[in-house]
Amino acid sequence: MKLKRIPWISYLIILIGTVIMIFPFLDMIFSSFKSASEYSKLNYSLLPETFVFDNYRMAFEQLKLSMLFKNSIIRSLAITLLVLLTSSLGGYVLAKLRFPGKKLIFRFVLSTMMFPAFLFFIPNYYITVHFPLVGGNNIFGEGGYGGLAASMAGLIVPFAVSGFGIFLMRQFIMNIEDAYIESARIDGAGELRIFFQVILPMTVPALATLAIFEFIGSWNEFIWALLMNSVNNELATLPVGIQMLKSHLDPTLTQPLVMAGLVIATIPILILFLFLQKYYVRGMMNDGLK
């Protein structure tokens, strides 16, 4: 006996899931408008009794949000663009070119995804601090004031290549017909021209998906940014600045300010997702159909 489909049950489940998912976000927004005394009350209330808009002004002053926001934007955009370039190039090479050792290189790329990222933090830290001829270091990487770690490059360079990104782009590019590439080669196009003018325009959905993942990951990354902040305080990002404020001041007084900072920190992510949403959905649909 076949069970009849009940659409309203599906809609109800989706509605309940949506409320559960969106409630913490709404609590963060409304808490950013509460006063410190109201936030510390035992009786919880989602809506504030009085909207305190001054929390956002104080957040910019006490958190130094302008500097933190600038550092986070520069870092996240730079890492995202570098990962898109290196991943698409690596994916194209591993998907369409033929050369000895290609399978071995691809397996090595896959193996990098099997280790947690924090295992590489200490080696990367020593490399950036003792990088030769940078930041006052001599040719042996000594005598300087921090090497790459003292500049914005220290926040960006260690994340310029992504094993997951190369894997994702390779799998997408493998589904592109070889006839496009052969036709371009017959017309005399070189590999770089084929990549930029033929392959890259076809991979926009995959690039948009990868851009969302990388931007959010870079924006929220904390441990490496904290290490770089120990070398140069001017390199602090939003997660580091917000956490330091929570650690050094009374949380009952600063929590509404922290919530205001978190609301501001989510704006670029929302804008990016809304801008790339149609490409992201298209990429997911294409992968699902294939």
TrEMBL record:
> Where this protein primarily resides, as one coarse class?
membrane
Arranged from A to Z, the UniProt key words for this protein are:
Cell membrane, Membrane, Transmembrane, Transmembrane helix, Transport
**CDD domains with a match to the protein in the record:** TM_PBP2
Q: List localization entries.
A: Cell membrane
Name listed for the protein in its UniProt record: Carbohydrate ABC transporter permease
Chain segments annotated as transmembrane: 12-33, 73-95, 104-127, 147-173, 194-216, 257-276
Query: Where in this chain does the record put each ABC transmembrane type-1 domain?
Result: 69-276
How does the protein associate with the membrane?
Multi-pass membrane protein
